[in-house]
Amino acid sequence: MKIPSVLRVAALALLLSGRLLAQQTFPVYSGTVPNSKPSTVQETSLTLASGGVRIANVVQPTLTAYLPAAGTANGTAVIICPGGGYARLSIDSEGYDVAKRLNEMGVTAFVLKYRLPNDESQPDKSTAPLMDAQQALRLVRQQAAKYGINPERIGIMGFSAGGHLAATAGTHFARPVVAGSESVRPAFLVLLYPVISFADSLQHAGSRTSLLGPSPSAEEVRQYSNELQVSAQTPPTFLVHAQDDKTVPVNNSIVFYQACLRHGVPAELHLYPRGGHGFGLDNKTTKDLWTDRLRNWLDANGWLAN
Length: 306
Known about the structure:
This is Beta-xylanase. By secondary structure, the protein is of the alpha/beta class.
């Protein structure tokens, strides 16, 4: 009889901590997905030999909610945009794992499975990811009371191409690409080894081609080079990058930081000499944890206060 009792206690503890709700997934749009068209495109999921999960061909964007343990939530929320070159989503290492770490800070996290640019399923593939990010911000703001969130404390985080999406959400909110009455301005940005610029000298070619095609116009390149879109209204920003990143040059983060300086936007930049690209939560070249630096930054700005 002792084993069932232990199991019951453990299940109750999990329920009280909110962890049984960790896989609560819901659609970003309640009805027809805007900027979509009938196609044969179907979502695919691949589990790598390392255990990592990659998702591609997203047709129905979703949010997966991760809730802090009962009594620890502080009212701040973060929407997480995994990376993958706008061709796939590293949904675990740059999504679910990060959400759990944020929960430890008392932050409610939502992993965004956003549409990847696809001419077959989207009339305008260049705006589909941003539409999903803006709608996610609106939806979380609409449901703030349900999750115990302060609607003025909803930030957005992104890794690599997901960092480009988060930076775009933080610089293009004045002219939303999806209709709605609620603001789509995030309270803050957290950008990890982000794709920022589509300029020839800084671009991650795969991300630019996936989003804009092989021959984008000069205006399209300018519009989606987010260092050129920073204004005084851009949210406070936290950036992390490694100097030896061979995939997305470190200058992507540096030019965004410099743009924040020019416009008086509070920004904090952490550069590691090594770590390469795509290290997720753990840059194995250092004992320093960027999530500790993030916790300090969030705390200093009042986002961890109850």
